[in-house]
Write a structure and sequence with these properties.
- By secondary structure, the chain is mostly beta strands.
- Helices cover about 0% and strands about 55% of the residues.
- Strands 2, 4, 5, 6, 9, 12 and 13 form a seven-stranded mixed β-sheet that branches. A four-stranded antiparallel β-sheet has the order 1-3-8-7, with no helix packed on it.
- It is globular and about 40 Å long.
- The termini are far apart.
- The mean pLDDT is about 95.
Length: about 120
């Protein structure tokens, strides 16, 4: 199982960034996929997930600003980041799970242990 995140970079005020998560080694469209982020000195936290059927869910802090989507033909999940805030700066990683919903987010959470994530920096 491989889950590789990419697309990070510098987010400027009013700007946008699109992250990608490509999965391989498993039947991609059977799984929910989620995004997590970890800022320096802080714990990793859940951000958003999308069910195998394409239903999106978000934590409150990114609702209305981030959009998660998936293209099963490309084994890829995207996270469109708009209207950045300083707290958005972090290393973003993706994971797979059997399901995701509003209450629990992604569950269970399985990361690719070799995945290093992608760095997002927010300029002031």
């Amino acid at each position: 199982v491989q889950l590789q995140a990419s697309g990070g970079g510098l987010l400027q005020p009013g700007g946008s960034l699109a992250l990608s998560c490509v999965g391989s080694g498993f039947t991609f469209d059977d799984y929910a996929i989620g995004w997590f982020r970890q800022a320096p000195g802080k714990e990793r936290v859940y951000v958003s997930c999308i069910s195998d059927r394409g239903q999106p869910y978000y934590v409150d802090s990114v609702k209305g600003r981030f959009t998660i989507s998936r293209d099963n033909a490309k084994n890829t999940v995207y996270l469109q980041m708009n209207s950045p805030k300083p707290d958005d700066a972090a290393v973003y990683r993706c994971a797979r799970g059997f399901y995701c919903n509003e209450r629990e987010g992604l569950s269970p959470v399985e990361f690719d242990p070799r995945g290093r994530g992608t760095q997002v920096t927010v300029s002031s």
